[in-house]
Specification:
Blueprint: H1 3-41, H2 50-76, H3 84-106, E1 108-109, E2 113-114, H4 116-135, H5 139-154
Antiparallel strand pairs: 1-2
Helix pairs in contact: 1-2, 1-5, 2-3, 3-4
């Protein structure tokens, strides 16, 4: 395998690992988000189970740390030249998404106290970031990634 193929293989492996880890992270956090969102919407935070709230704080904090680590991986991986533009866009959008996750986690205070305005703003920012990440999967990016997968499979 030549140097360029090794670079492509490393990039493909890293992107795949980040995507899988992001999905795993979201699967852990989503079931905790929905009941909290409902309690906020119904103005019933005082009735929300304290253990469940504390678990949500912990899982959100761990999840945000995971996103920060994944962002570092995205920032450090060497992207193939033809993917530099889409890669930089992906990094920027993932960074915005990660910041929104940090803001949401920071909005959860002790004893079921939530900064609702910050929580809502963070949720909107996460949705925007997530949408941009998925929109960023342009045809060119997908085409290059498919070629990348074929190259990696040959090796």
């Amino acid at each position: 395998m030549n140097k360029q193929q090794m670079k492509l293989a490393n990039y493909g492996t890293t992107i795949n690992a980040v995507v899988e880890a992001t999905q795993d992270n979201q699967e852990k956090m989503a079931p905790l988000f929905e009941p909290l969102r409902k309690a906020i919407d119904e103005n019933k935070l005082a009735d929300y189970d304290l253990e469940a709230y504390q678990q949500t704080q912990t899982v959100f904090s761990e999840g945000t740390s995971n996103y920060e680590a994944l962002l570092v991986k995205l920032q450090q991986v060497a992207a193939p030249v033809r993917l530099l533009g889409p890669h930089h866009t992906l990094v920027r959008d993932f960074a915005a998404f990660t910041e929104a996750c940090k803001a949401m986690t920071a909005s959860l205070h002790a004893d079921r106290q939530v900064d609702v305005a910050a929580f809502n703003a963070a949720e909107k920012a996460q949705d925007r970031g997530n949408s941009k990440i998925h929109q960023g999967k342009s045809k060119k990016f997908q085409s290059c990634c498919l070629k990348l997968v074929k190259i990696v499979k040959k090796v």
